[in-house]
Amino acid sequence: MKQLVKRLLYKLIPLQTYVNYHHRIINRFWQEQLIPQYAYLNSQYEISAALIKAKSKKLSQKYENAKDLLVNVGAGPHAKADWINVDISEAPGINCVCDCRKSLPFPDNSVKGIFTEHFFEHIDYVEEVPLFLSECYRVLKPGGIIRIIVPDIEKYLYAYCQGGWEELSIIRPLDSDLTDFHFKFKYNTRMELINFVFRQHYEHKYAYDYETLEFILYKYGFSKVQRQAFGKSLMDELSIDQQIRASESLYVEAIK
């Protein structure tokens, strides 16, 4: 009975009405200082994600006969022509709107390549990474490749241990007053920069070096894992890295 009521409500009331209603409630709690802003923002994101998931339950039907797909996970504003560009938010070029942290809407063995750049660090290592990698393995065809690009925490920690700002500025471009070139955040200490990389407010969930990525990819079934470099890939189509992120990034590929 409960499920029937939910289905009726989804048909009668537009999805955006649900989103606006919940956002108004959370926004009121935040403005009245009953919950901190970071909790508000995270709750807002998760509510939106849950509603998107409910809306996209039948998305898999769209791809039921698909094969040899190229999938760009967490594409954001960097969607690629002739790719399946996946993101949780609608944006130009995004042609697959879904919450991909726990499931992907593609059939088994239907994908030849998965590209994900600065998305993997945004999912929880304990709860979401096992589901996400298991789904990636499921949808990839034998011999298919996943290319994962994340901030290289080993680079950052090495630079931090050198003392001063010179090494850190090479990895993460800073203006003359130590303002982050990308995020426009002014750092007062080197540890502020390190914490921003680790956390990026509430958005980053885990920090990776090659050893950890290699371990987790083998754990979830991939047969071969290797470190790569900017613009270098086992599959030419996967060489779509952003030049602007090259100095700070770790490039890893795994084969099913």
TrEMBL record:
Record keyword Methyltransferase present: yes
Protein name: Methyltransferase domain-containing protein
Pfam families the UniProt entry points to: Methyltransf_11
Keyword flag Methyltransferase: yes
A single MF term (Gene Ontology): S-adenosylmethionine-dependent methyltransferase activity
Record's keyword terms, sorted: Methyltransferase, Transferase
Signal sequence interval, chain numbering: none
Gene Ontology terms describing biological process: methylation
